[in-house]
Design goal:
Blueprint: H1 12-23, H2 27-40, E1 45-51, E2 57-62, H3 69-75, H4 102-108, E3 111-117, E4 122-129, E5 132-140, E6 144-150, H5 157-161, H6 166-183, E7 188-193, E8 196-200, H7 207-215, H8 217-222, E9 223-229, E10 233-240, E11 252-256, E12 259-261, H9 264-273, E13 286-292, E14 297-298, E15 309-310, H10 313-329, E16 335-336, H11 349-352, E17 437-442, E18 446-451, E19 454-459, H12 460-477, E20 483-493, H13 496-503, H14 506-511, E21 517-520, E22 523-530, H15 538-551, H16 557-569, H17 582-593, E23 608-611, H18 613-619
Parallel strand pairs: 1-7, 11-13, 16-23
Antiparallel strand pairs: 1-2, 2-6, 3-4, 3-6, 4-5, 7-8, 9-10, 10-13, 11-12, 14-15, 17-18, 18-19, 19-23, 20-22, 21-22
């Protein structure tokens, strides 16, 4: 018996469903494809109306160029598009859509009704269910297109079963529309769910207003503008200062020629710029727009068109990292304390005052702020008519949090947003820290200063760590270095197998200006050490360096140097709970003024915190809230 499988040509219905599996994952996928079509149709207003977060129904209405009856019939067919016409067009894509897969894929897994008009009074409606035409008719309709999608995944129950709760599905669509509003600030977007407006922009091309709408006014005020270009690319956008950060990378928005994209390499380029500015595991809020000749960008990588490839990506990565580094260096990054953010942690005098004898002994005092709470944005409680699904845990940092808003889309009240000053530079002529007036030391850990009616606190250990880190890092990249001879040569014993491994690291050690001689099979001798290693700490420093090199056999050189510098910077730093002399304070301030980034320690924690006179007077009830 011949059991050889026979090759057959799949039906159009089946190929459409296969294509839908690649393009349509959830209601947000449908919204993405339809809204991108509206953008390509030159719409200036796009409304997205959802029922049950889009699980029951999605309606997209735009005021674009519209379609006639023939256009609708063609648009529903696979690989029918007005975006490209020849092979060469694939290498210079200027529109969001071009594959001709979106509408056929959506129609294959749903009930879809398309109504459109070109002239603004005579329109045409066609109704399809799972790619079969059910009805067509003439209708009166304004210029533009309306597409209603329902019965989503009803013919693919496995996909329907695995949709998340309404809250989670709504969050995906919210995240999509907020990102699109950043890519197209000139388009008015309105998103509703069950008849209630959740997000709206006015299409005024005002980035500040959109960022305020998405993240809130306090975060909008912390954003720093940047712009730069290279031979191939131009970049511009906004990045947050070090007072604002997230616990994930979701707030890093990448846009190439107005297309929302995902690219881990570009995200790493941004993170590299914040190295030592933010704590480990914390990420900035960034809106990065890349402008390039379409021929330098390949968007034909994946059906969702989120992944792209770049000509000379290394140049783009370097441009991003250096631009953001420069804007951070040239911005005063002192942490501003906003007492409103911690007001709920301050006990009310009226309700919480207790007599001394009523207070339990040895009860730990709750601090006003923890590091992870310190000046990050406050999550907004989600108020909606959607019932939460107990089986799904939502991390507020993983999705865009939002409030239900009664938004009049025709009226937008703009609040003035002040950008940080860009004239603060850390060079040899800068003496900001030395200009501070020293008041004293608090808790043997924090140095207290004042200037122009403002109060400053400096963490003495964090500040010294920053100074040591930059001195050590600089020594790794300096071509020549000064040494000092040890009166008694330093001997370090290592297991014999580690001696062999250490021999392979001789070049790296030489670049750190550390040289050794073999004394016997498990001992090395060091006779001189570079000046950046403090006296009486030679064994500790060099042992740490040896251990790091031996445990990290294959690691990027710059990363290795950075990690070693962080490790060693703590060794000789002024500690917390240590009395500091006035001469040491002066030297500390002088050294901070010569640091490239005096505002955070190498691990991203703040070295200096600023309290305005207004905030202090609010605590003492001298001014109103």
């Amino acid at each position: 018996m011949n059991n050889r499988p026979k090759i057959i040509e799949l039906s159009t219905e089946l190929t459409n469903m296969i294509a839908a599996g690649e393009v349509i994952e959830r209601p947000a996928s449908i919204v993405k494809e339809l809204v991108e079509n509206s953008i390509d149709a030159d719409a200036t207003t796009i409304r997205i109306d959802l029922v049950s977060a889009g699980i029951d129904k999605i309606t997209i209405i735009d005021n674009g160029i519209g379609m006639n009856a023939e256009d609708i019939s063609l648009a529903i067919k696979p690989h029918a598009t007005s975006k490209i016409k020849s092979f060469n067009d694939l290498f210079a894509i200027r529109t969001l859509g071009f594959r001709g897969e979106a509408l056929p894929s959506i129609a294959s897994i749903s009930h879809i009704e398309i109504t459109s008009s070109i002239n603004g009074y005579e329109g045409y409606t066609k109704v399809y269910e799972f790619n079969r035409l059910l009805e067509e008719k003439l209708t009166s309709f304004p210029r533009g297109t309306k597409i209603e999608v329902s019965k989503i995944f009803h013919n693919t129950p496995a996909r329907l079963k695995h949709l998340s709760s309404e809250q989670v599905e709504l969050s995906h669509t919210m995240q999509l529309i907020t990102k699109l509003s950043l890519a197209y600030p000139q388009i008015a977007f309105i998103l509703t769910n069950n008849g209630k407006v959740f997000f709206a922009t006015d299409g005024s091309n005002d980035f500040d207003l959109i960022i305020k709408e998405i993240y809130g006014s306090e975060i909008a005020k912390s954003m720093i503008a940047f712009e730069e270009k290279s031979s191939l690319y131009q970049i511009k956008g906004y990045t947050s200062n070090i007072s604002v950060f997230r616990s994930n990378k979701n707030a890093i928005n990448l846009i190439i020629n107005h297309r929302i994209i995902k690219n881990q390499n570009l995200i790493y380029a941004i993170i590299d710029a914040y190295k030592s500015y933010l704590p480990i595991g914390k990420y900035p809020i960034v809106v990065l727009e890349i402008i390039a000749n379409p021929s330098y960008v390949d968007v034909n990588v994946h059906p969702t068109k989120l992944e792209v490839r770049f000509t000379d990506e290394r140049e783009l990565r370097n441009l991003i990292t250096e631009t953001i580094k420069n804007v951070l260096r040239n911005t005063q990054l002192i942490y501003e304390v906003n007492l409103d953010e911690v007001a709920t942690s301050i006990p009310s005098i009226k309700n919480n005052f207790k007599k001394e004898e009523d207070r339990p002994l040895n009860k730990p005092v709750k601090t006003l702020m923890n590091w992870d709470d310190f000046p990050s944005s406050v999550a907004v409680e989600l108020k909606t008519d959607i019932k939460p699904d107990d089986k799904v845990t939502i991390n507020d940092d993983d999705i865009f949090t939002y409030q239900e808003k009664n938004i009049n889309t025709s009226v937008f009240i703009k609040e003035e947003i002040k950008q940080p000053k860009m004239n603060f530079e850390n060079d040899e002529n800068n003496n900001f820290f030395q200009s501070l007036e020293y008041i004293g030391q608090y808790d043997l850990t924090y140095l207290i200063f004042q200037k122009d009616s403002n109060l400053y606190l400096i963490d003495q250990h964090a500040a010294m760590e920053r100074i040591m880190y930059e001195k050590i890092s600089s020594s790794f990249t300096t071509q020549t270095s000064e040494f000092y001879e040890l009166l008694v040569p330093l001997t370090i014993n290592l297991p014999i197998f580690e001696i062999n491994l250490l021999e392979n690291k001789k070049i790296e050690l030489a670049k750190m200006h550390i040289e050794y001689e073999l004394f016997d099979k498990n001992t090395v001798i060091i006779r001189k050490v570079p000046l950046w290693i403090p006296a009486n700490h030679e064994r500790e420093f060099i042992s740490d360096i040896f251990n790091y090199l031996l445990q990290n056999k294959s690691v990027d050189r710059s990363l290795m140097y950075d990690e070693i510098a962080k490790l060693l910077s703590c060794k000789k730093s002024i500690k917390a709970n240590m009395l500091i002399h006035i001469d040491e304070v002066r030297q500390l301030l002088n050294d901070l003024d010569h640091c490239q980034n005096p505002y955070t320690c190498p691990h991203g924690r703040p070295t200096v915190i600023h309290f305005s006179q207004y905030e202090i007077e609010k605590l003492f009830k001298r001014v109103g809230n």
